[in-house]
From TrEMBL:
Placement of WD repeats on the sequence: 23-64, 113-154, 155-198, 199-240, 252-284, 285-317
Subunit details: May interact with RGS9; this interaction stabilizes both proteins and increases RGS9 GTPase-activating protein (GAP) activity, hence accelerating the deactivation of D(2) dopamine receptor-mediated signaling.
Family in the record: Belongs to the WD repeat G protein beta family.
InterPro entries given in the database record: G-protein_beta_1-5, WD40/YVTN_repeat-like_dom_sf, WD40_G-protein_beta-like, WD40_PAC1, WD40_repeat_CS, WD40_repeat_dom_sf, WD40_rpt
Pfam families, per database record: WD40_Gbeta
The protein's name: Guanine nucleotide binding protein (G protein), beta 5b
A GO biological process held by the record: signal transduction
SUPFAM superfamilies registered for this protein in UniProt: WD40 repeat-like (SSF50978)
Matching SMART domains: WD40
Organism, as annotated: Cyprinus carpio carpio
Keywords: Repeat, Transducer, WD repeat
PROSITE patterns, alphabetized: WD_REPEATS_1, WD_REPEATS_2, WD_REPEATS_REGION
């Protein structure tokens, strides 16, 4: 276990994170959010069918789109910052170009890119605006060409709903990890469509997967009330983040920029911060009034954002 190896490492000192901004504007549960690479803008999606682009600093809403469906479970910012993708119960992934014109009718420029046979659970642009990776309740992941909407590659290997995916951080970025209701986390080769590694130690649905900054490992958050760390080179689970007092599922996980901290949002309305190496909990963050559905560290690592079923997003630093 990682914890034994890390025994001699200094423990982290006390650190305080507070809510610095609260973003209010959704009329229902916030289900997903993503940061723009400009480190300032955020896109969020909600059960109310709305997708909102925020300036996280001023809390202004820069764009808002109402989707044709409720439960918009997935949203993502394009690497260029010039578009957002989203979808959910409509089984599609749609891309909206963003312009500087605040009065522009975004819906008119919507492009349907991906089509699944069940709900869209997550989406992510690859290293360009030209391709998008999706996961779905139909048990598959897929890679699409944004311009043509053509299916470039599909990924079959989960035996139930896929709930989350994350692209490997390397610039070559030819692998991604997915997790879902079959309790499995699968690593895929994007070019061949092959499932190259599979991990199954969770006792319930895997709600979220996230690569370690180096790309050599990834973390999972599960309904079994644990988060786990899997090492790709060792091909095994190397750490479990859990406490007897934590009985609610973990909905979302993300690493600090250094990889030393793991932020995890839970269904008991809290965010727990874990020391990745020592396996100890170093903070509990209170503030949300319903379950935390999404946590994402900003691209420069100076803050993180959480979204919740209490209809709000919070920026912590």
């Amino acid at each position: 276990y990682l914890h034994q190896v890390a025994e001699k490492i200094d423990a982290l000192g006390q650190f305080v994170m507070k809510t610095r901004r609260t973003l209010k504007g959704h009329g229902n549960k916030v289900l997903c959010m993503d940061w723009c690479r400009d480190k300032r803008r955020i896109v969020s999606s909600s059960q109310d069918g709305k997708v909102i682009v925020w300036d996280a600093y001023t809390t202004n809403k820069e764009h808002a789109v109402t989707m044709p469906c409720t439960w918009v479970m997935a949203c993502a910012y394009a690497p260029s910052g010039c578009a957002v993708a989203c979808g959910g119960l409509d089984n599609k992934c749609s891309v909206y170009p963003l312009s500087l014109d605040k009065n522009e009718n975004l819906a008119a420029k919507k492009k349907s890119v991906a089509m699944h046979t069940n709900y869209l659970s997550s989406c992510s642009f690859t290293n360009s605006d030209m391709q998008i990776l999706t996961s779905s309740g139909d048990g598959t992941c897929a890679l699409w060409d944004v311009e043509s909407g053509q299916l470039l590659q599909s990924f079959h290997g989960h035996s139930a709903d896929v709930l989350s995916l994350d692209l490997a951080p390397s610039e070559t970025g030819n692998t991604f990890v997915s997790g879902g209701c079959d309790k499995k986390a699968n690593v895929w080769d994007m070019r061949s469509g092959q499932n190259v590694q599979s991990f199954e130690t969770h006792e319930s649905d895997i709600n979220n997967v996230k690569y370690y900054p180096s790309g050599d490992a990834f973390a999972t958050g599960s309904d079994d009330a644990t988060c786990r760390l899997y090492d790709l080179r060792a091909d095994r689970e190397v750490a479990i983040y859990s406490k007897d007092s934590i009985i609610f599922g973990a909905s979302s996980v993300d690493f600090s920029l250094s990889g030393r901290l793991l932020f995890a949002g839970y269904n008991d309305y809290t965010i727990n911060v874990w020391d990745v190496l020592k396996g100890t909990r170093v903070a509990i963050l209170f503030g949300h009034e319903n379950r935390v559905s999404t946590v994402r560290v900003s691209p420069d690592g100076t803050a993180f954002c959480s979204g919740s079923w209490d209809n709000t997003l919070r920026i912590w630093a």
